[in-house]
Amino acid sequence: MPAALRLPSSRRLVGAVAGCLLTEAAWASAYAVGVPVPKVLALLLVPAAMGLAALTALAAARTPGLGPGGARFWRQLTVCILLTGIGATIMGQARLNPDTPNALRIIQVSAPALVLGIGLAMYALLRLPVRAQSRGEWVRLGLDGLTVLITTALFLWHLALRPMVERHTDVRLALGLLMLATTCLVALVAVMKVVLLGSGPISPRSMRLLASAILAGGLGSAVSPLIASPRLVGLQPMITLFEALLVACAAHAQTRPVPEPAAAARTRAYSKLPYFAVAATSLLLAAVAYGDHAGVGPVATGAIAVSAVVGLRQLVALRDNAQLLTSVRRHEQRLRYQASHDALTTLVNRAHFTELLDAALTTATRPVAVLLIDLDDFKLINDTLGHAVGDEVLITVAERLRRAVRHDDVVARLGGDEFAMLLHDVDDAHAVDVAGRIRDTLGTPIHTAGHDLLVHASVGVATSASGDRLDTLLRNADLAMYAAKERGKGGHFVYVPGMTTRIVAHAELGAQLRDAIELGQLFLLYQPIVRLDDGRTTATEALVRWRHPERGVVPPCDFIPAAEQTGLIVALGRWVLREACRQQARWLRDLGDDAPQSVSVNVAGRQLTDPQFVADVVAALDDAGLDARRLTLEVTETAVLDRAEAIAALHALRGLRVKLALDDFGTAASSLGLLLTCPVTSLKLDRTFVDGITTVARQEAVATAVIRMAQALELSAVAEGIETEAQARMLRGLGYRFGQGYLYARPLAPHDVAALSAPVLIGRRSSI
């Protein structure tokens, strides 16, 4: 809007209208007591106040978010105020100068503007939408309206129309007054309709103030004959200015609406009007009876008393009923809230979240996104610090998740340590930004019960596509979350088409793997670990294989990920551990000093965080009768990185004298830091640094750094993936004493390992 058309604030406009009213009150008081004051001041105050009220209504029409229907209403009301102000100004001149010859004609000229303004207000009110009503409510509404309509008509006739018709014989004046009175009545009915039924776009407070303004105007018209004294001529403009102030306040309330609870009990503002009508009629009856027919006085007094008692009783009953109804509705609201929200975090619960998501998918014109959030290792907090601390962590996480999204997005707790988000009108990029904000907001430690806890979360992101249903989107987000967990802690993953096929295949393979463990379809092969100077086998590494009844031998790269995804990796690792310990004990018993001196078993990250893992190792050693020093557990750097429970398990195992090897050393980002916290006894140089060691200087440099580090820390070092004699010679020259690879042997069956117990010629590749 151009700067020249910028309106003052509605608050200032309301203050200006109030100033006009106070000035008019001062003028009327001075005029009533005979103080000489200029009449032109009273004439100017009415159009000034009505103009200011019109500007306030125009400002209300420009309220953001009002909608076309609400803006149209306030614009029409602006025109209505201007027309009414013109009519009131013209009529005010006739009231101030009743003895002028043109006073009657002036009144006749002002009537059309007033009628047109009131008619436009009625039209604007009737166009507003209303709530749905039952047939009984419409009947009660009609009866209440009829009661007030009859009462108002009676007052208008007795106090205004009848005296004026008796005083003036001009038919045109009588018809004009009748038209004005009828229009006031119809406008009153329109106000009743809005007050009783409500309107969507207009603030309820604004509607109540507008209704008060029109009622004030109707009462002012009704009592105008009672203030016809020349000294009280300033009271009528005061009523007009009071109407203008109410309208301005209503417009100001629209610009700053105060939200009301949707389910709160509301008293029908118009439900008490019939009682006011009875009281007003009784007063009128008393005035007529005592004034004209004194004999009717006792009867009228009794009627008034009965009406007062009955009305008072009904009002008390209505108040009690309203309080009871308020209590019932609050209880219903509380039950609805409890049924749709989580009691601990006050977030939306799973049932309500699915309802909101279903509604969003049905009505949304742009994509929506679902984020499934699972706290990593939350069970450890409950197990070690107690559920009270765990609950405090969940509450804090819920508050932080709320701050990571917009106010119209939805955050839910699905159960346990699993949360969800519904993002409206987004794409993959925005959803990924939210996932990043989740990581950042959870990056600050949570202080509770004297502990500073760092919580990580895995986030799965899925954005809706055309035709997606509720279960499809939730499944996609769930698959993405599990993919994020496979990649490590505190990460996120976005669902891409095709993931379903891979995940389902993993799930099917996992189900078959469970049967394979029970049916004995798994077996172990052992790859020798040799001394590089003479090629003698000193240890073996146990490698699991699966002999599938239909697919043949399934490689580990196919079924190990399925085992990790389905959680079977713990049971699978337990079986491998027991079988390897039994085989090592059998070699020692059968081969004596020629047997491999120890066996290495790979351990997955999920095994290390299993509370029973240390007990499983002890049980495997005891069942096989194997010395703990004959067992080496190989762990990867990523399996123990930032996992306090994994480090604790390794320290417990080292206390049992089990050897620990850091496998694939050098491939993770924090290898050096782990050497300070992880109690390993040996390092295994990853095969990626051995493959090009004879031709790539950087790989030789890494291999040199690893052996120097191992020597400084008094750790043994094993080079993996040796395939050529040149690689073996260079590694020996660098200081490596042990190695494994196809140069010496492929993974062998247990009965073939004995053949390698005697020294072999270096450079002789095994043909087994």
From TrEMBL:
Keywords: Membrane, Transmembrane, Transmembrane helix. SUPFAM superfamilies: EAL domain-like, Nucleotide cyclase. Residues 506-761 form the EAL domain. Gene3D superfamilies: 3.30.70.270, EAL domain. Residues 366-497 form the GGDEF domain. The chain crosses the membrane at residues 40-61, 73-94, 106-126, 138-161, 173-197, 209-228. Pfam families: EAL, GGDEF. This is Bifunctional diguanylate cyclase/phosphodiesterase. It comes from Dactylosporangium cerinum. The lineage of its organism: Bacteria, Bacillati, Actinomycetota, Actinomycetes, Micromonosporales.
